[in-house]
Amino acid sequence: MSTKNQLQIDLKNEKELKTLGFIVNPVAGMGGAVGLKGTDGKDILRKAIELGAKPVAPKRASSFLFELGKLIQNVKLIVGGGDMGEKEALKSGFEYSICSKRKKSTDAKDTIEIATKMLDLDLNLLVFCGGDGTARDIEKAINLSVPVIGVPTGVKMHSAIFALNPQAAATVAAKFLKSELPVKETEVMDVDEKAFREGHLSAHLYGYMLAPYEPLLLQGKKIASPITENELRNQAAISVYIIENMESNVIYILGPGTTTRTIADLLDEKKTLLGVDLFYDKKIIANDVTEKRILNKIKGKHAKILVTPIGGQGFVFGRGNQQISSDVIKKVGLNNIIILATKSKLSGLKQLRIDTGDKELDDLFRENKLKVITDYGIELLVKAE
Predict the structure, then answer these.
(1) Domain residue spans in the chain?
(2) Domain 3-212: which CATH class?
(3) pLDDT digits over 23-68, tens only?
(4) Taking the CB of residue 316, how many other CB atoms lie within 10 A of it?
């Protein structure tokens, strides 16, 4: 093909109006900061609201559309009514049409119904804002019919369908709509939330969806740490080193994970495996805390954060530990964050990732190197992406 013909095709693609389905789960992620590990079900949502949970999906949905608007303009949105996409589309500057009625409260049935309607509207791409539960609902409706990108706004987000953050989702969407990316079958995972709240992680594969293939901007699936003798010895060595260096009169905020739980085990304390706990003078002073309780406890005190990255994905913040919010991190300070990662886990990660929901804070992380402890007395400085 001649250069002239290729240029004509590229110009045609630029001018052709693309159709993007856009669905927002307005309650996704509300359980994170209040320690509920999700918001599946009306009873849990009600409890989250009683605990002071605030919506997080609308802001991240708006961030996605704002970034998309900077990258591509020839897009028409097909959106859910009211809180399920219409409100964000109204402020986006994109042309849009609504494919469902506005409702005061929404649930999984609404997501499935909207996604099913969108199948008949000749979409180029479907983008949803939610967590693993929303991904499951979308997969039920469309399976492999339309390429999909998930904007991460939930709590768990084990599925590989999600972009790293709203900005990354916008970049992937724009590249795909400009015909710059192929598609690939991508896993839809979810955990049993009831078991998750009780400290048992049970993740299942529920199906596959097509996603634009951009491995640097999509998070990939979570990979569990191997239970081997070497891994357990490595976790114990890290834990001993942490315990020996714990300072008096400092509150230690311990995130979820088996490595942080090993610290508690060696101190003969009972840590929440999948929650966030507070230690002071090597004793637990609060179990399974919310963002609000952390802020109250560390007010006027010196504090440090101990977290471990998610295997396979590399997220340090923003996946399953939203109680350690951007406000908590700012109070503690980046210099007081310690990352714990066994050698095998660190070697299996392409990079450490940050998604606190606060872009300025995320950028600050990327400008500084983070302390990572990988064994007894071995500390590395690693850059986050």
Answers:
(1) 3-212, 229-383
(2) alpha beta
(3) 999 988 776 666 665 556 666 666 766 676 677 899 999 999 999 9
(4) 27
